Amino acid sequence: MKDSALLAIILMVQSLCAVFFVFDIVASVLGLRARPISWQIREVIELGAALGLILGVIMGGLALRRSMVRRNLAEGKLRRAASAFADVLEERFSAWGLTPAEREVALFLIKGFPIAEIARLRETSEGTVKAQTNAVYRKAGVNGASQLLSLFLDDLMEDRFLPEAAEQVA
User: Fold this and answer.
1) Which end of the chain is flanked by fewer CB atoms within 10 Å, N or C?
2) What is the pLDDT of residues 70-84, one digit of tens each?
3) Cα–Cα distance between 119 and 112 in angstroms, integer?
4) Distance between CA atoms of 42 and 20, rounded to whole angstroms?
5) Nearest partner of 89 among 109, 74, 73, 75, judged by Cα
6) Tell me: the pLDDT tens digits for 105-126?
7) Backbone torsions φ then ψ of 97, nearest 5 degrees
């Protein structure tokens, strides 16, 4: 049975249990009982409702635990992807022979910053940033920031950088 179907059943059981307890209190306050039920039957009904609520708490805890495990796995994959991206950046920057200033400009370009903002952040003139940008593009063999970014995305999409492939190699 799928997780969503199981959760739906648990929610339905919990809802019925909650309705039972609320109806029992309302019926007592308003005197709605036409015919009293025996205490044995009442105890069995209350026991079943309490067990349903306990089951809901247990299943809720299991669902929470499962979602935390999934979150941790996703965070691990994200860390590996970030690490792989940093490796790709370093590999490419070294192969292109970028200077430290060109590396910094290239990072800003990859992040999508405009020339004026890069100049402001680096505390240099726009003309200097434009010259460094042109040097990065020339060394990378691209015509613009989108092509520069696509080089790195292509590298990340290769099998050697995918987390599943890295786990198989290890």
Assistant:
1) C
2) 999 999 988 888 887
3) 13
4) 11
5) 109
6) 999 999 999 999 999 999 999 9
7) 70, 40
Residue 95 backbone dihedrals phi, psi, to 5 degrees: -60, -35
**What distance in Å separates the CA atoms of residue 115 and residue 125, rounded to the nearest whole number?**
9
Q: Distance (Å, rounded) from C-alpha 21 to C-alpha 50?
A: 9
d(CA 149, CA 107) in angstroms, rounded, equals 10
Q: Which two tokens stand for residue 130?
A: 């434009």
Between 7 and 47, the higher pLDDT residue: 47
Are the CB atoms for 110 and 148 separated by under 8 Å? yes
Q: How does DSSP assign 13-78, residue by residue?
A: HHHHHHHHHHHHHHHHHHT--SSPPPHHHHHHHHHHHHHHHHHHHHHHHHHHHHHHHHHHHHHHHH
